[in-house]
UniProtKB/TrEMBL annotation:
Originating species: Caenorhabditis japonica
InterPro entries: REX1-like_exo, REXO1/3/4-like, Ribonucl_H, RNaseH-like_sf, RNaseH_sf
GO molecular function, one term: exonuclease activity
Name the record gives this protein: Exonuclease domain-containing protein
Gene3D superfamilies listed in its UniProt record: Ribonuclease H-like superfamily/Ribonuclease H (3.30.420.10)
One Pfam family hit: RNase_T
Record key words, sorted: Exonuclease, Hydrolase, Nuclease
Signal peptide: none
GO cellular component: nucleus
Taxonomic classification: Eukaryota, Metazoa, Ecdysozoa, Nematoda, Chromadorea
UniProt key word Nuclease: yes
Amino acid sequence: MNVRLSLQEQIRRKSVKMQKTFDTIGKHDRSHFILSLEQLADKNYPFPGDDGIVPTKKKYKKVSPNSPLFSVDCEMCETSNANRALTRISIVNEQGDTVLDTLVKPDGYITDYVTQFSGITAKMMKGVTTTLEDVQTAVQSLLPPDAILVGHSLEYDLQAMKMAHPYCLDVGQVLNYTNGNSGLRNSLKNLSELFLGENIQSAYGHCSYEDAWAALRLAQLKLKNGIVFGNTSFGWKYTEYAKQDDEVCEEKKEIQSKQSCSGCSQPTVVECTVRNCRCRFVSVPDKCVRCIREGQNEQGDFDWAQSLPVERDKTASPIATYLKKDKMRSVMCAFDRDDLDLMDSSSKK
């Protein structure tokens, strides 16, 4: 007979497992923080084959403690064909540098730029010819086969990209300073203010680079501190964290001059509308979206379905474990009558 484990016991066992890995390699295994197959489905993450969804790679590798992080954020506008159509995408590597940043021409015509939230204006979109298919090809080429995608409410970004990825780390899922059991996620803006001391998404609008950078820094903070950190449902308390004097903010780098594509002389990044935005102070790619060759696409050994992380943590344990550990000779149990009727005579006894 199996006894269902309490949430506290599940977290304790997972923490012990993660600590053993940390003691061995000196850092947390990143695969412990990615969403399981059940979580991907529960949060409505896109799957290949659904409504034209394509995978980010043809073949993947298994994730490891050294698998690289790539943070992604998208900005969307309302169009004649869709309520949320991709109009800008930014991808940031672990060093905080831009590896992809482009405006995207959506299908149909834009009915509302939603500039207050998207940071997109009609002037910015004038002359844009990059398509969603261009972005998909670039993403497939840029990401290594064991990349872990980072974001906040990442399912919406992937839905806008019409792409599926098996290794996803959602900072809104692993960090929750209010009530992690409610299923609701703290906003990226609030998480950034609390944990990074950074004010993002200001009155000047959103920048997809800035949001991707914030999600990346939050993910790195979580990986550094472990599974309990930042999640009240796991017993974490903000009052204890607030006593620490650690400086988590990072200084802006010396400003980099914006580059033109080495292949076609087109700009490789977007000039956003946010005043003094962080995106202006980082290294930028040397090629535009269309000049990224699909032939450079590195592949792994597993297809999309084989790469999906399946939840293997048991939520129940044999009762014999407790009898042996506590040296008990008997235990009181209760069964639903319908379940009891299905048991054979020896089990009933």
